[in-house]
Structure formats: structure tokens, C-alpha cells
Amino acid sequence: MKDYLISHIKDVDGVTPVVLMNLMNRHFDYKLLDIYEVEEFMNEFLEQDLSCYEHIYITDLTVPESIYEKLKKHTCKDKFLIFDHHKTHMHAKKYSFVTLDMNECGTTLFYNYLKELYDIETPALNQYIESVKNLDLWLFEQEEDKISPILDSLFGLYGELRYIDEMTKRFLAVKEEFVLTPFEMELLKLEEEGKNRYINNRELRMIKAKLKNIPVGIAFAEKYRSELCHELLNRHPEIDVAVVINMGGGISFRSREVDVSLLAKEFGGGGHKLAAGLPINVEAIEKFLDVQFQGKI
Questions:
Q1: What is the pLDDT of residues 67-76, one digit of tens each?
Q2: Where are the alpha helices (DSSP H) in 123-248?
Q3: In 3D, which of 24, 168, 21, 74 has the Cα closest to residue 32?
């Protein structure tokens, strides 16, 4: 029998579980979803014949309570195992097949499960998994982890499918230490130059405003959103939250102290204490424009 994996399409934490599945030497199918696609996909998925799957894993995605109600009655409910770390998913702690921990990321929770059952653990993979966690929870500064931002850049360069392929080949060949190829080093050097120009340009157009009486900096950008937030917070100590709006994607919130998951939740999003977001839709934009722009600082 084979397995099925459902995970997040938008970041390194979401796609790395596919890499881990590739290392297990098992047949599996997978689907990568954006957050807003989960409910519709799961409703359709649960109508299918799932008898061919031994395990069905869901990682780094919040599953709505309505889906759990259906799972409880489903003939294949015992096949499901869910690993997540989002605050908006804590309603599912009551289910025995769900592992939730906001101090970890989806990848670390899934990896800790898999390495107890399959011979996939290596020093290189351990190093990489820790960097994925530091990137996703925005811990790389305090952990002095220089690999985490590089992973984000590689994901942006490669896209999800090639990133999965490249990382899979890397860990099949390298066991002792996670390293970048000379090609990647050159790509990243060129990318860094372009990224710095882009971030400087976006910073010049940043809007300072109040969000629920919290000083925020708001910028519009289609790429480098995490790095842009990071730089805005570093360069502007007068703001407590960096907000980046990608009109073709979503709204990102980052902070060093403010619980931005609560802000995102107000608009139908979610995330972690220091890093959260929401998808772009008409309702979210109307509410955001109506409530958030309360005036310049």
C-alpha cells in the first residue's frame, strides 16, 4: 500500500515533508495546498475511495472543525495523522491522531514521528530540519542560524517542485553536513544583489500607520516578503509590526514581540505569534482598508 501527504504549498516548512517522504523509500501521492483551499479540498477528498492508502498525513495546515466532524464518521478515519503548530488549530488537541505544538514547526513534528519508524535520520538532515524550524518560527536571529534565510532564498529561486527535487537528491547523497552547491552559491550571490535593491525600493514606499493602536509599517511587495519584514523591523525601531501586502497572494505580518497571529485571525487568517498572514480576497481587503489605516504615525 502507499501513503498520501497533504501539506502547505507556500513555504519551506510546507514542502519539506514531501522531501522526507521521498527519503522513506515508500510509494506515496501528495497534494500541496494554500491555507484557504483546505476545506474545499478535504470535503472532496473524503468523498473518494481512500482504501488504497495505508497512512494519510496532513502537515503544516489548519484543518477546520467541520472536517474533523466528517473524519470522526469516516470509514478510513484511522488512516489519518495530522501534524501542525498553528495557534488557530489548537481546537484539534482533543483528537488522538493530531499532534500540535506551537513551539515546533510542521516539519519537525513530522520528522520526529518518521525517524522513529524509518531509517532516515542523518546529521545533515538534522541540521537542515532545525534550520527549517528557525526559519518558520522566525528564530534564526536569536539562534544565529545563517542557513535559515538561505533556505528561504533557495525556495524562492527554485519554486516548490524543483526545491523538493533538489533537497531530496541532496539528502540521498550527503549524510554528514548540509552544504550548498557552487551553483547555488553563485545564484544566491546574484539573487542577494537583486533582493537588496528590491527591499530598499519597497522600504522607501513604506506607509507608517496605527493598527489597533500598534505602530506598524506597511509595504507592498510580491517577493522577499519575510526578508522585507525583517529589514523593516530592523531599520525602523519606531514600528512594532511589519505588514507586507502582496496583491497577488496575501498579507504577511511579522513582529519581534506582538502576537500577530491574533491580528491575522481578525481577517480570516492565522499563523504564529511572530509570523502570520492571510490570503487576499475582497472581504479581507475591504476590512483591512476600513480598519487598519487609522492615520499616519
A1: 999 999 999 9
A2: 123-136, 147-173, 182-204, 225-235
A3: 21
The set of cell numbers assigned to 174 is 550527503
- pLDDT for the residue 296: 46
Nearest to 267 by CA among 295, 239, 292: 292
- Closest C-alpha to 86, from 222, 260, 243: 260
Q: What is the number of other CB atoms lying within 10 angstroms of the CB of residue 197?
A: 10
pLDDT at 295: 46
Strands (E), the chain: 2-8, 28-33, 53-59, 80-84, 98-100, 207-211, 214-220, 241-245, 250-255, 270-271, 275-279
Long-range CB contacts (within 8 A, 24+) of 166-169: 167/16, 167/19, 167/128, 168/19, 168/22, 168/23
Confidence of residue 143 (pLDDT cuts 50, 70, 90): low
Which domains occur in the chain, in start order? 2-180 (3.40.50), 201-291 (3.10.310.30)
Distance of CA 112 to the CA centre of its chain: 18
Residue with cell 498572514: 277
Query: Counting every residue, how long is the chain?
Result: 297
CA gap 165, 115 in Å, rounded: 20
Cβ–Cβ under 8 Å, residues 86 and 62: yes
- Over the stretch 164-195, which tens digit does the pLDDT of each residue have? 999 999 999 989 998 888 888 887 788 788 88
Give SS3 for 292: coil
Mean pLDDT of the chain: 89
Distance (Å, rounded) from C-alpha 277 to C-alpha 61? 13
Q: How far is CA 1 from CA 75, 111, 114, 120, 261, in A?
A: 17, 21, 17, 20, 39
Q: How far apart are CA 221 and CA 264, in angstroms?
A: 18
